[in-house]
Write a structure and sequence with these properties.
Blueprint: H1 2-33, H2 35-57, H3 63-85, E1 107-110, E2 113-116, H4 118-132, H5 156-159, H6 165-181, E3 190-194, H7 201-214, E4 219-223, H8 224-235, H9 245-254, E5 257-263, H10 270-286, E6 293-298, H11 302-308, H12 311-320, E7 321-325, H13 331-338
Parallel strand pairs: 3-6, 3-7, 4-5, 5-6
Antiparallel strand pairs: 1-2
């Protein structure tokens, strides 16, 4: 989000200014104690200015340019010798940047253009995680995916499908990985996960979110019960915890991937139906300007979706979302039994 980049740019500027300020403070302390170093630093600065001027007015290999360069080299070596004699580390007078690559600028020059440094990218990803509501619990992510929790034998009477839950979940995983790979494609559909409680819908949705975050996109995870208060606060112009209700609502529309979990568990009302439909329509319009995908997870199959929700919402989900069915046993119970 643009707010994150503005925040990071400001943080990097402060960090760089702080490092330069601390270096100047150390210089002043040293120069006050050792005046000879202060005079030498002035000589180095003047020699550097003269060398730069000679490069502008003459060829880099001209006699005067070479003389200034030699003098600079001599003065710097003399400075190193004095620092050593006074037991002062060679880099003590220089700014101590947290990143030696970009010197706390956040950006580096690459192929003639400015590009984010790896330190900036890491902090950006960290901030994306913070605002995404995706908690790193050490158990979520496709590296923790385990198809062995899903029965290998089909049972149509129990699971309402001809294939086994294991075969089903492996196909779901395949489709989800394809969703990640083609996330930036306009033709990639939204996803609708449905199936009984505890069959992995939230786990898979969050695992997708983590991969999308790693790719540098914005992600927002919300349960249905937490979604509607955000919309209500926006309608009533009520800010919460210092966060603008308008910005919170705008994030619902502009975030690259919105994950809406547990649809069907919230209290139903006509106003909520209208708000959900409006949000889906706004995100569809946003998709024409930027990447805007939605994942909805619910216990409701298509038949129950029509029974529980406004027909327009059900039709929108059926028409614009790829449905992926989850079957099997409650994995949380299976894990408890194994403990």
């Amino acid at each position: 989000m643009a707010d994150i980049r503005r925040f990071l740019d400001s943080e990097f500027a402060l960090k760089r200014d702080r490092a330069i300020y601390e270096a100047e403070r150390r210089k002043n302390d040293v120069f006050e104690k050792f005046p000879e170093l202060s005079r030498l630093e002035t000589e180095i600065t003047l020699a550097g200015v003269r060398y730069a001027r000679s490069l502008i007015s003459e060829a880099a290999s001209s006699p005067s340019a070479n003389e200034y360069l030699e003098k600079l080299d001599y003065l710097n070596k003399k400075k190193e010798t004095l620092l050593s004699e006074y037991n002062i580390p060679a880099d003590y007078l220089e700014p101590r940047f947290s990143c030696a690559i970009c010197e706390d600028r956040g950006y580096i020059s690459k192929d003639g253009t400015s590009a984010p440094c790896s330190c900036y990218q890491n902090l950006y990803l960290e901030q994306l995680f913070k605002v995404s509501n995706l908690v790193d619990d050490g158990e979520t992510g496709f590296e923790y995916f385990n198809e062995n929790y899903y029965p290998a034998n089909p049972d149509k009477k129990k699971y309402f499908t001809d294939i086994s839950p294991r075969e089903q979940i492996l196909e779901v995983k395949k489709q989800c990985l394809n969703f990640i790979d083609t996330f930036a494609d306009k033709s990639t559909q939204n996803l609708y996960f449905y199936g009984p409680t505890g069959t992995g819908k939230t786990f898979v949705a969050k695992s997708i979110g983590i991969e999308i975050l790693k790719a540098g996109y914005t992600v927002l995870y919300l349960t249905a019960t937490s979604l509607f208060p955000i919309i209500q606060q926006y309608r009533l112009n009520m800010d919460k915890d210092g966060v603008s209700s308008e910005q919170a609502y705008k994030n619902l529309i502009t975030v690259n991937l919105l994950i809406l979990d547990d649809l069907g568990t919230e209290a139903k009302s006509d106003s909520k139906y209208a708000e959900l439909l409006s949000l889906l329509e706004l995100r569809k319009a946003q998709g024409k300007k930027s990447i805007s995908k939605t994942i909805i997870a619910s216990n409701l199959n298509y038949k129950r979706l029509f029974q529980e929700y406004d027909e327009r919402i059900a039709s929108r989900i059926i028409g614009e979302f790829q449905a992926l069915q989850f079957t099997g046993e409650d994995i949380r119970i299976l894990k408890k039994i194994k403990e």
